[in-house]
Design a protein that fits this description.
It is a single chain. By secondary structure, the chain is mainly α. 59% of the residues lie in helices and 5% in strands. The protein has 19 helices and 6 strands. Helix 6 runs parallel beside helix 13 and helix 7 runs antiparallel to helix 11. The radius of gyration is 31 Å and the shape is elongated. The structure holds arginine (ARG). Arginine binds next to helix 6. Arginine (ARG) binds next to helix 6.
Length: 465
């Protein structure tokens, strides 16, 4: 019989020889899954309450077990619990300690359950609560973006396509594009609650149990909507893990896009924003440097989050259904991804509060690259009854001419313009005004100042809902 130092058997009478010490050391998951202690204890308490209600356990034993579990929870909270690799994981560590505290009656706790359903019950509860934390962090970012946007409704900059100056936009409109992304992230995370809300507890090892358990009771008490339908699928299913890791990946991807843009705009080439000293780091050799390390850090972390999603997909690929040890790695991946994402969101929030738009440079850059060319084409369609394609051609010729003359569109005289469309009057000149250009984009979702103000009000309302 394998004994631990307290002379307790680990696997009882079945396994006579000492297990591989090497495997004990590296195969034990306790260093990782001890994070689940609260969820594990809660689920165990509800489990024994249910066993008592169903007359499977008597009152005295139920109370003893709950007393022991409470004591264990306090010990862990106070860092007085000795986690032991010999007992593999959090479930066995708690069970073994329960034996020490209440004696042989601890043996009743594992009636009608298995670690296979236990672990996913704990895990689903944990993922649900981390999802709520992530969404709170997303809300904080949205709030910060709103604050910065409110101050920058009239900050005009070039909008880029292909990283070439395209059309004039408001800096607030640009920032608020990320509100939409982060709102979608929130929704994506919330969608997972459907699968997270099905209770695995009670499917036991693979086939269910012969005890007359009440899975609706445990579902209700643990905050699940309903019990899962198929015991085999339940034990094998880690789709909810994939869904979570995918949501993290998409959210990280959004973070990496904004990080990349801010890094570019902070570069000496663009110089569209500067970063306050709070969010830069120095160089060990170049005294002049202020580097955007925080942004680079969160951009880079997207890689590990994608990696975690791919690891889980690969672990599940071709794995026959039901439980295998392979699945144990799910927790490390989720814990890491969740921590990384929360850190990245917090860093991004700090960065966003400390960016300084270089308004003059933004405006100057928007004056390069003929950003109002589309406005001119639109004007020709709206005022000189021609098709858009014809207007496009005339405008293209005007742009070619301006380029040859090394002039901006607003530097062309009305006579020069009339060479291309004789009917043009002075009123056309206002088309080349950038503010006018931004404000003309009044279509729903466009960058006009009025639209932005309305969207800010809407987002604020959404935040309070
Ligand atoms: N620590 C295990 C895990 O996370 C718990 C389930 C163990 N089940 C088993 N049949 N060995 O996957």
């Amino acid at each position: 019989m394998t004994k631990n130092k307290n002379n307790q058997s680990i696997w009882g009478n079945r396994i006579k020889k000492n297990g591989s010490v090497l495997f004990q050391k590296i195969g034990s998951s306790i260093d990782i899954d001890k994070k689940l202690y609260k969820e594990d204890i809660l689920a165990s308490k509800i489990h024994v309450e249910m066993l008592f209600k169903q007359k499977i356990l008597n009152f005295k034993i139920k109370n003893k077990i709950i007393y022991g579990l409470q004591k264990i929870e306090n010990e862990i909270k106070k860092n007085k619990f000795e986690f032991n690799k010999k007992f593999e994981d959090i479930h066995m560590n708690i069970e073994k300690r329960l034996f020490q505290i209440i004696g042989e009656d601890a043996g009743y706790i594992h009636t009608a359950r298995s670690r296979n359903d236990q672990v996913i019950t704990d895990f689903k509860i944990w993922i649900s609560s981390t999802t709520k934390d992530i969404n709170k962090n997303l809300d904080k970012i949205i709030k910060t973006i709103l604050k910065v946007s409110e101050k920058n409704i009239e900050t005009i900059m070039p909008g880029f396509t292909h990283l070439k100056n395209a059309q004039a936009i408001s800096f607030a409109h640009y920032l608020m594009a990320y509100i939409e992304m982060f709102k979608r992230d929130k929704k994506r995370f919330l969608n997972n609650f459907n699968s997270l809300s099905e209770n695995p507890l009670g499917v036991a090892a693979i086939s269910g149990t012969s005890f007359n358990i009440d899975r609706d009771f445990t579902s209700k008490k643990l905050g699940f909507k309903k019990p899962t339908n198929n015991s085999i699928d339940t034990v094998a299913d880690r789709d909810f893990v994939l869904d979570f890791l995918y949501c993290v990946s998409v959210c990280s991807m959004h973070i990496s896009r904004i990080a990349e843009e801010l890094i570019l705009w902070n570069s000496d080439g663009f110089n569209l924003i500067s970063l306050s000293d709070k969010i830069v780091t120095g160089s060990s050799i170049m005294p002049q440097k202020k580097n955007p390390d925080l942004l680079e850090f969160i951009r880079g972390k997207t890689g590990s989050n994608y990696g975690n999603l791919f690891s889980m997909l690969t672990i599940l690929k071709s794995l026959p259904i039901s439980y295998f040890k392979d699945l144990q790695d799910d927790k490390e991946l989720v814990f890491k991804s969740s921590e990384t994402l929360n850190n990245s969101l917090n860093i991004l929030n700090e960065v966003l509060r400390n960016i300084i738009p270089n308004k003059k440079k933004m405006f100057d850059l928007a004056n390069h690259g003929y950003l109002t060319a589309t406005d001119l084409a639109d004007f020709l369609v709206q005022n000189h009854s021609m098709s858009f394609r014809k207007a496009y051609d005339i405008t293209a010729s005007i742009v070619n001419f301006a380029e040859k003359k090394k002039k901006r569109l607003n530097e062309l005289s009305i006579d020069e313009l009339r060479k291309f469309e004789p009917k043009l009057k002075n009123e056309v000149l206002k088309i080349f005004d950038l503010k006018n250009s931004v404000n003309s984009k009044k279509s729903y979702g466009g960058t006009s100042f009025d639209n932005i103000k309305k969207m800010i009000t809407k987002y604020k309302r959404d935040q309070n809902d």
